[in-house]
Design a protein that fits this description.
There is one protein chain. The chain has an 8-stranded mixed beta sheet. Helix content is about 20%, strand content about 40%. It has one domain (about 1-135): Roll (2,3-Dihydroxybiphenyl 1,2-Dioxygenase, domain 1), CATH 3.10.180.10. Strand 2 (about 30-35) and strand 3 form a beta hairpin. The chain has about 150 residues and is an alpha+beta fold. The structure holds ligand V0V and cobalt (II) ion (CO). Ligand V0V binds near residues 9, 83, 113 and 129.
């Protein structure tokens, strides 16, 4: 059901500072920058590798305010890994199957995600404390490093 690790989301206080860190220390490149009002984030995607199954990304997340998922996370835990996003072929089918197995769905239906993807979150308390995101990428999503 889970095809690959699409991205790892990392919460940070200042996006520009964190981008500069990942670029200078790891030679990564920002592929996309977006503000997602619905999710309460300003985010950047940095391409890690173009493996045969598709690229993966580091998603740097800065909150748009304190009363957002990432804002609350930063206040409670500080900077660090916020979620794991898994690539799925059919997000609607995956949600239905996972929900039927007793995991609470934070999103009953897919929402708009980075670079045109469809995304949906699973409750971390039902996944061993890991906020888990399902990602169905559109054909247009870049699969190579740029
Ligand atoms: C909160 N908790 C987490 C967590 N955030 N546990 C693991 N990982 C996280 N990231 C735990 C927290 O420690 C508490 O556990 C409990 O959940 C309630 O925390 P809270 O601060 O009161 O927060 P809530 O309940 O208001 O909201 C928590 C959830 C919320 C997970 C429900 O953050 C949410 O709906 N997240 C999904 C949307 C999201 O994260 N969007 C930003 C990324 P204890 O202390 O009770 O045990 S957007 C994105 O990834 C995009 C756009 C993309 O990929 O394209
Ligand atoms: Co994400």
């Amino acid at each position: 059901m889970l095809d690959r690790i699409d991205h790892v989301g990392i919460a940070c206080h200042d996006l520009a500072t964190k981008i500069a860190f990942y670029e200078s220390v790891f030679d990564l490149t920002v592929v996309s920058r977006e503000v997602n009002e619905e999710q309460g984030v300003r985010e950047a995607m940095l391409c890690v590798a173009a493996a045969p199954g598709g690229a993966s990304w580091i998603q740097l997340l800065e909150p748009l305010g304190p009363d957002t998922p990432v804002g609350k996370f930063l206040a409670r835990r500080g900077e660090g890994v916020h979620h794991i996003g898994y690539g799925v072929a059919n997000i609607t089918q995956a949600l239905e199957a996972i929900g039927a197995r007793g995991v609470r769905l934070l999103d009953q239906r897919p929402r708009h995600g980075s670079m045109g993807a469809s995304i949906a979150f699973l409750h971390p308390a039902d996944v061993g404390g890991v906020l888990t995101e399902l990602v169905q990428g559109p054909g247009a999503r870049p699969q190579t490093m740029q």
